[in-house]
């Protein structure tokens, strides 16, 4: 597992326990790094070859877990007080190789579906959805175009 390049991003391996009738997959525990309480859990899907984004939360911490398919996450640090300001990272997570991606406030995020059909993620968020709490830019915003072309 590669270490994230952006300060405060956490990538955690998750247990996958196979069973005769199906598997058990860990998501998050209150003692895990990156856990900051939760007020809402929601699911988002993205179709094969499609990319959703860009979004930057101002207060929310997201704990992202891919539960179906495979998703590539594109991350850009625009926090002016960060040691990794203006750096980007690309992290690929699949349901078959479970990991949790913890994204702090201030990181621009987009994600792309890599397998046929719907690719589904779960977000364990420390805040309830508030449209005033985040910023959104078009996926084709010129300042972020280069990172999408890398994958």
Automatic annotation (TrEMBL):
InterPro entries: RmlC-like (IPR000888), RmlC-like_jellyroll (IPR014710), RmlC_Cupin_sf (IPR011051). It comes from the Bacteria. One of its GO terms (molecular function) is dTDP-4-dehydrorhamnose 3,5-epimerase activity. Its EC number is 5.1.3.13. It catalyses: dTDP-4-dehydro-6-deoxy-alpha-D-glucose = dTDP-4-dehydro-beta-L-rhamnose. Catalyzes the epimerization of the C3' and C5'positions of dTDP-6-deoxy-D-xylo-4-hexulose, forming dTDP-6-deoxy-L-lyxo-4-hexulose. This is dTDP-4-dehydrorhamnose 3,5-epimerase. It comes from Leptospira gomenensis. The lineage of its organism: Bacteria, Pseudomonadati, Spirochaetota, Spirochaetia, Leptospirales.
């Amino acid at each position: 597992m590669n270490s994230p390049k952006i300060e405060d991003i956490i990538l955690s391996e998750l247990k996958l326990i196979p069973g005769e009738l199906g598997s058990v997959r860990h998501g998050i525990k209150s003692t895990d790094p990156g856990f900051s309480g939760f007020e809402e859990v929601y699911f988002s899907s993205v179709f094969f070859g499609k990319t959703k984004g860009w979004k930057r939360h101002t207060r929310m911490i997201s704990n992202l877990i891919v539960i179906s398919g495979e998703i590539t996450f594109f991350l850009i640090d625009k926090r002016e007080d960060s040691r990794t300001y203006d750096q980007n990272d690309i992290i690929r997570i699949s349901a078959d190789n479970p990991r949790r991606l913890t994204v702090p406030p201030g990181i621009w995020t987009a994600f792309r579906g890599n397998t046929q059909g719907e690719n589904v993620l779960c977000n364990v968020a420390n805040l309830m959805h508030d449209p005033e709490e985040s910023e959104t830019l078009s996926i084709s915003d010129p300042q972020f175009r280069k990172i999408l072309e890398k994958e």
